[in-house]
Design brief:
73 residues; mainly alpha; 3 helices; 44% helix
């Protein structure tokens, strides 16, 4: 995973602004949500982005052993 920098931050923010409260958006990540803020180089944008998606989110957190390990056995 790479930090979100420059224009990518603004583009992502524009997408979320357009979709917020109007359309469903799905995020999948190997990182816990609490680590997402650190991915943004501009912390003000990180605050705004996370504020828009976290408070209305329905979250599914998968836990347990990787299926790759289970299938490989």
């Amino acid at each position: 995973l790479q930090p979100i920098t420059g224009d990518k931050q603004l583009i992502l923010m524009d997408i979320i602004e357009d979709r917020n409260h109007h359309k469903t958006t799905i995020f999948c990540s190997q990182l816990p949500v609490k680590a997402w803020h650190d991915l943004f180089s501009e912390k003000t944008i990180a605050d705004a982005f996370l504020d828009r998606i976290i408070h209305s989110a329905i979250r599914f957190e998968l836990e347990g052993e990787s299926l790759r390990k289970i299938i490989k056995k």
